[in-house]
Design a protein that fits this description.
Low-confidence stretches of chain B: 1-11
Number of helices of chain A: 17
Shape of chain A: globular
Radius of gyration of chain B: 18 Å
Strand content of chain A: 15-25%
Number of helices of chain B: 8
Oligomer: heterodimer
Helix content of chain A: 25-40%
Strand content of chain B: 15-25%
Order of helices and strands of chain B: EEHHEHEHEHEEEHHH
Number of strands of chain B: 8
Distance between the termini of chain B: 27 Å
Mean pLDDT of chain A: 92
Radius of gyration of chain A: 22 Å
Distance between the termini of chain A: 32 Å
Strand order of the largest sheet of chain B: 1-6-7-8
Low-confidence stretches of chain A: 1-18, 494-504
Largest sheet of chain B: 4 strands, antiparallel
Strand order of the largest sheet of chain A: 5-4-3-6-7
Shape of chain B: globular
Chain lengths: 504, 210
């Protein structure tokens, strides 16, 4: 389609400080959602779609009930249960009392306020940032919020999507609006072709390693460049998902043919004439050639290796063949942080991370639990077996992903490899349910945060791509996945089982 | 500002209401990149009310093996030398998860102000929505504060929202806050009241053809 070419042309790096007339995609979406602006204060921003889940919504509904008001636009809010649900035996009542009460509160609140709920047992249930896109609820040009920081995921469609606190959830429920100050704008360009075995998770971990876990605080980040544009929708979601890990308010990617093809035909996607109209509008959503960014970064895709984190924030990542940094090589202010992180992780500075023993592998979370992630892992793992002393959990992002995986025979591949396919939920990403990594154990995780105790008290998390995680599952140690890949041309990886079989 | 005040506004508990400022000793937490998972671990987010999170503030840094009978003596919140309504923290405080429970936990544990050289965006908003004032100071001023407090734990810090100043050990620095939020904190207004008062404009905005 022509628009792809047009978009890449207009999003070519503009000279810093253009003439000021051009607008970014962020400006375009932001401006048409302003209800009004308060003098020397924030703006009243209209919210198109609001996702809620069981953990950050109960206090917001309590607030509405205290004020004796109903949800203002219930049809613009969608609910699911994901953070706190078990990932086995979902047909049984939730054993843990507090978790059960929280899920029950969500059911009650949604029913009293007329909010659509895709709860446990519903064929659409799943991680909130997986189900929004797969149902076609998430669309370009929208403002989207949720009481969850990884709401930035939806920005992959060219939407302004960001996480909010519970007081703000209450505001959106009550008025469909938020008071927001416009963030600064940053564009991160990744150009060139990706190396074999390097996937979108590696791109975002690489960006994080370059700009740090606070490098984009105060900014909305647009991801651009040929390497980004070559990614599938699901791969783009992985990138935008982790924009919050740079501190960004949100991350977004201009929509193109890849975006439109993904949305078309999905349950809540516009149909017929509405579809045509929508696409005409969506095609206007890109940053003008002379648009002005407050900060712009250029990275070369060829420099990116399979990445892994060694520390306790997502900015602490290295190429899988690199040495763990030493306190001598980092600047003065980072020294204590590095020592503290390495002490927690039980790792030594200046040593290789490759070969580090792994106890658990977690493939899941709103970052990497979609069907393409599962296909990628399955195509790599087929015919292989996990290492004896590694426990491997694969947690699909939604019921639909789970169903698709079973239809494609992916479940059988996992079973043969000794991987445990569980049921949809946030699971060991945050260890809120019983899926926790024991203290002191090492987990290669496809999730988004390696914070101390994130996956359970004392758990040691190493973030990586689904491929790198799968490689560690097979060898039992941190591994360069490329050493295990069949010799295919650069960048080529069989992404479906059928394709893999054709390769073989 | 003609914002209606709702009796249930959490901001009516704003320590800045009317007076604009106060003095207090502080608790120095000299660690950078403190994420909200440290402030309140996910396993304590199962409540459906806003109260009671304070006892699990920094839970995994406070206790050995999650055992309340085994406090980690070297963690500052367990150190009786330090107390007060101000939490002094390293840069990039409150990063990570959007959980407002982090702000509730800090507030519930008796803090009214957090001072740092850099706050994560969502945490900052959540704090302001709970009358917990995030005060951003320069790196230099922050290290001076840490130094002064470590030397003398009785050091008092004065925070004045009206004048947007923070002073301690003979030094003063100004801090930024947008005037809307300042008005809210000084008067006990909150965003939801303001938005509810804007309903008519919101409905007009929604009408097609506008």
């Amino acid at each position: 389609m022509n628009d792809v070419k047009n978009h890449s042309e207009v999003s070519k790096p503009s000279p810093f400080g253009g003439d000021g007339g051009g607008r970014t995609i962020f400006d375009k979406i932001w401006e048409i959602h302003i209800v009004k602006k308060i003098d020397d204060g924030p703006s009243v921003l209209y919210i198109d779609k609001h996702f809620i889940h069981e953990v950050t919504s109960p206090q917001a509904f309590n607030g509405l009930n205290k004020r004796d008001i109903k949800v203002f636009r219930p049809q613009q809010t969608v609910a699911t249960a994901d953070h706190n649900v078990p990932t086995i035996n979902q047909h049984l009542p939730i054993k843990e009392e507090l978790s059960r009460k929280q899920v029950e509160a969500l059911i009650k609140n949604c029913s009293e306020h007329g909010v659509e709920l895709y709860g446990l047992g519903h064929p659409f249930q799943g991680i909130v940032h997986v189900i929004g896109p797969e149902l076609g609820i998430t669309q370009p040009g929208m403002t989207i919020v949720c009481g969850d920081s990884h709401t930035s995921t939806h920005g992959a469609f060219g939407a302004i999507a960001f996480g909010i606190g519970t007081s703000e959830v209450e505001m959106v429920l009550a008025t469909q609006c938020l008071l927001q100050t416009k963030p600064k704008l940053m564009r991160i360009n990744v150009d060139g072709e990706l190396n074999k075995g390097v996937v979108s998770k590696d791109i975002v971990l690489y960006i994080l390693s370059k700009i740090s876990a606070s490098g984009a605080t105060g900014y909305a980040v647009e991801f651009a460049g040929s390497a980004i544009r070559s990614l599938s929708m699901e791969a783009r979601m992985t990138i935008c998902n982790m924009s919050i890990e740079m501190g960004a308010r949100c991350g977004l990617i201009a929509p193109d043919a890849t975006t439109f093809n993904y949305i078309k035909g999905r349950k809540f996607a516009p149909q017929g004439e509405d579809w045509d109209k929508a696409v005409v509008y969506w095609k206007t959503l890109y940053s003008d050639g002379d648009a002005r960014f407050d900060n712009e970064i250029f990275l070369d895709a060829d420099d990116i290796q399979p990445m892994i984190t060694y520390g306790t924030n997502p900015g602490m990542g290295i190429g899988v063949n690199d040495m763990i940094p030493t306190t001598e090589t980092v600047n003065e202010t980072d020294k204590s942080g590095l020592s503290k992180s390495l002490a927690y992780m039980g790792l030594k500075e200046g040593t290789p991370i490759k070969g580090q023993k792994v106890d658990y592998v977690f493939i899941g979370s709103c970052t990497n639990s979609r069907i393409e992630d599962l296909r990628m892992v399955a195509s790599f793992v087929k015919g292989k077996k996990k290492a004896d002393d590694v426990e491997v959990w694969v947690v699909p992002g939604s019921k639909q992903v789970e169903k698709q995986a079973i239809e494609e025979g992916i479940d059988k591949v996992f079973e043969a490899a000794g991987f445990m396919l569980r049921q949809p939920g946030c699971s060991a990403c945050l260890g809120m349910n019983e899926d926790k990594i024991p203290a002191g154990k090492y987990c290669i995780s496809t999730s988004n945060r390696n914070f101390e105790g994130r996956q359970g008290p004392g758990a040691r998390t190493m973030l990586a791509s689904p491929l790198t995680a799968a490689a560690a599952a097979i060898t039992g140690v941190v591994t360069d996945v490329r050493e295990l890949l069949p010799p295919t041309p650069k960048g080529e990886l069989a992404i479906t089982l059928t394709e893999l079989e054709q390769h073989n | 500002m003609s914002t209606p005040i709702n009796k249930e506004s959490p901001n009516l508990g704003s320590p800045f209401r009317g007076t604009g400022g106060f003095r207090s000793t502080c608790v120095p937490l000299n660690i950078e990149n403190v994420d909200t998972d440290q402030i309140i671990p996910a396993r304590f987010l199962k409540a459906t009310s806003r109260e009671g999170f304070g006892k699990n503030l920094f839970r995994d840094w406070r206790y050995i093996n999650d055992d309340e009978n085994q406090p980690k003596q070297d963690f500052v919140l367990n150190d009786k030398t330090y107390s007060g309504k101000i939490l002094l923290a390293g840069k990039n405080f409150g990063c990570g998860s959007s959980r407002e429970h982090a702000a509730w936990a800090i507030k519930d544990a008796g803090f009214d102000v957090v001072v740092s050289s850099f706050f994560a965006d969502i945490f900052k908003n959540n704090s302001l929505n709970n009358s917990l004032l995030p005060v951003t100071v320069s790196e230099k001023f922050l290290s001076k504060l840490f130094e002064a407090v470590t030397k003398n734990p009785e050091t008092e810090i004065e925070v004045n929202l009206e004048t947007q100043t923070i002073s301690a050990a003979g030094e003063t620095e100004n801090f930024e806050i947008n005037s809307y939020k300042k008005t809210c904190l000084l008067n006990g207004y909150d965003d939801i009241d303001y938005l509810l008062s804007s309903k008519k404009e919101i409905e007009e905005f929604e009408t097609p053809g506008k």
